[in-house]
Amino acid sequence: MKYEAVIGLEVHVQVRTASKMFCSCPNRYGAEPNTLVCPVCLGYPGTLPVPNHEAILKAVRAGLLTECTIAKFSKFDRKSYFYPDLAKNYQISQYDLPFCTAGRLHLSGKGFSSAELPDKYIGITRIHLEEDPAKLTHAGGVSGADYNRSGVPLLEVVSEPDMRSADEAYAYLTKLKEIMQYGGISDCDMEKGQMRCDVNISLRPFGQKEFGTKIELKNLNSFRAAHRAVEYEMWRQADILDKGGSMKQETRGWNDDAGESYLMRTKEEAHDYRYFPDPDLMPVTFTDEEIDAIRKTLPELPGAMRARFVTECGLTEYDAEVLTADRSVAAWFDQAAKLSKSPKLVANWIISELLRLLGEEKVAIDECKITPATLAELVDLIENKTINGKIGKEVFAEMFATGKAPAAIVKEKGLVQVSDSGAIAQVVTDAINANPAQVEQYKAGNAKVLQFLVGQVMKLSKGKANPQLVIAELKKQLD
Ligand SMILES: [Zn+2]
Question: Higher model confidence: residue 109 or residue 353?
Answer without folding.
Answer: 353
